[in-house]
Specification:
This is Glutamate--tRNA ligase. The chain is of the alpha/beta class and 457 residues long. The chain is 45% helix and 11% strand. The chain has three domains: 1-74 and 193-326, Rossmann fold; 82-171 and 173-179, Glutamyl-tRNA Synthetase, Domain 3 (Glutamyl-tRNA Synthetase, domain 3), CATH 3.90.800; 382-454, Arc Repressor Mutant, subunit A. The strands form five sheets. Strands 1-2-3 form a three-stranded parallel β-sheet. The protein has a three-stranded antiparallel β-sheet with strand order 4-5-8. A two-stranded antiparallel sheet has the order 6-7. Strand 1 (4-7), helix 1 and strand 2 (36-41) form a beta-alpha-beta unit. The radius of gyration is 32 Å and the shape is elongated. Bound molecules: adenosine-5'-triphosphate.
Length: 457
């Protein structure tokens, strides 16, 4: 059977780094097993879901390097969910309830005071046809609950109440269905809660592995029961830990914190985001991994820890820095061109500066330094100014290349007796206006003789 996974966000905002972790875990799992990745939008909440958010999510996934094999929208599949409802009703495991939220709350309090678990007491199962007719006459509409197979105390139905699964992240997991209320699958207004559409789709789309955040662990027992009620074998489950902000706050699409779009706009490389989103909160070392297939090799669901993990965006810059250091010009070229870094000098400039920058756009600073007059005269004392003047008088004739620096500084050394920092630092300041940066041997031919002479202090 082909391994089939899905990523199922609601298109109600921009995805954040936590959502990206789920998407990446699924993508890497599919890569590892030569499987399929389904992008499925949980857009049954028609009021909050928007196509523009779905498009933005697809864009973010592509940017990260995730290319779904199939894209589905739950809002286009209501007929499937309606059919499943009819099957469950016919099987007698979906029953109408008429309680208002206030009535349910009152019952819950009474159960608690009686030291009973605060779950739904299935009172609706005992309603007579007359009582139902009376509710309907009042204008009440039913919501529909799924009858969980948890009748352990009923000798006529000796069903085990505990449901277990082997979680590919968390290991053995057990949920006692007796501790749960029969879940509502359909609301009064006929709309669906997340549970039924998700299970119906997983069955019909042949999902073999459900990999998602551990915010869903408690739903899994109910879902396994629902798979069985619909005549299907449940898939394998894997629940990974959630990512939080550095201060430990949860993430939500609604707040926009740590959104993939904001990290992209900030100039962070996709593989820096992917590396940190996947390796944080695992026993793996955190480092920038260059390609998705290398990350797939590093990815091990069993190495994921069980507790929530803090996502520190400051670490992204370190990873970004090391990715840029190794990035060939061909990969940076288009983005540099958009930033105005084009022409013959673009490649040598990139190769000169890539080890000294945190973000691609930082190359522009160096592009200006080699191409435009320096904005300010360098900060040199009188002695150094005299030294630099003399040194600039020794600049060789063009053509210049990488060896020119060596040739020039050898002559300066011989003429002045200076060496080391005393020799180089004033030259660096005069050439670039900065006390640190890329190799001067690389920058010198890019600045060129004419502009160098213009910088003679
Ligand atoms: N902080 C997080 N860390 C890791 N995974 C998360 C995090 N938040 C959500 N997920 C996972 O992302 C997937 C999509 O979830 P969903 O669309 O419900 O996102 P959400 O951000 O939790 O929702 P909301 O739109 O309510 O903010 C789910 O599998 C969920 O487990």
């Amino acid at each position: 059977m082909t391994v089939t996974v899905r990523f199922a966000p609601s298109p109600t905002g921009n995805i954040h780094i936590g959502n990206a972790r789920t998407a990446l875990f699924n993508w890497l799992f599919a890569m590892k097993h030569k499987g399929r990745f389904i992008q499925r939008f949980d857009d049954t909440d028609l009021a909050r879901s928007k196509q523009e958010y779905a498009n933005a999510i697809l864009y973010d996934l592509h940017w990260l390097g995730i290319y779904p094999d199939q894209t589905e929208y739950q809002s286009r599949r209501f007929d499937r969910y309606d059919a499943a409802v009819e099957r469950l009703k016919a099987a007698g495991v979906l029953y109408p309830c008429y309680e208002t939220p206030e009535e349910l709350e009152l019952r819950r309090k009474i159960r608690l005071s009686q030291k009973l678990p605060p779950v739904y007491g299935r009172e609706a199962l005992a309603l007579t046809p007359d009582e139902v007719a009376a509710f309907e006459a009042e204008g009440r509409k039913p919501h529909w609950r799924f009858l969980l197979p948890n009748f352990a105390d009923d000798p006529a139905n000796p069903v085990r109440t505990e449901l277990s699964w082997q979680d590919i992240v968390r290991g053995d997991e057990t949920v006692d269905l007796a501790s749960l209320s029969d879940p509502v699958l359909v609301r009064e207004d006929g709309t669906y809660l997340y549970t039924l559409p998700s299970v119906v789709d997983d069955i019909e789309m042949g999902v073999t592995h459900v990999i998602r955040g551990d915010d869903h662990v408690t739903n899994t027992g109910v879902q396994i029961a629902l798979f069985r009620a619909l005549g299907a074998e449940p898939p394998t489950f894997g629940h990974h830990n959630l990512l939080t902000t550095v201060s430990g706050e949860g993430l939500s699409k609604r707040t926009g914190a740590l959104s993939i779009a904001s990290l992209r706009d900030d100039g962070i490389e996709p593989m820096a985001v992917a590396s940190l989103a996947v390796l944080t909160g695992t026993s793996e070392n955190i480092e920038a991994v260059g390609t998705m297939s290398e990350l797939a090799d590093r990815f091990d669901p069993a190495a994921v820890s069980k507790s929530a993990a803090k996502f520190d965006p400051a670490e992204l810059l370190t990873l970004n820095h090391s990715l840029l250091h190794a990035m060939p010009f061909s990969e940076a070229q288009d983005r540099l061109a958009v930033l105005g870094v084009t022409g013959d000098k673009a490649e040598p400039l990139w190769l000169a500066v890539r080890g000294n920058i945190d973000k691609v756009q930082d190359a522009v600073t160096w592009w200006r330094i080699i191409n435009e007059p320096l904005p300010e005269a360098p900060d040199l004392d009188d002695e150094d100014r005299e030294y630099v003047r003399g040194a600039f008088d020794l600049l060789p004739e063009e053509p210049w290349d990488r060896s020119t620096w060596q040739q020039w500084t050898a002559a300066v050394k011989e003429a002045t007796g200076r060496k080391g920092k005393q020799l180089f630092l004033p030259l660096r300041l005069a050439m670039t206006g900065r006390s640190s940066g890329p190799e001067l041997a690389e920058l010198l031919p890019l600045i060129g003789r004419e502009e160098m002479l213009a910088r003679r202090p």
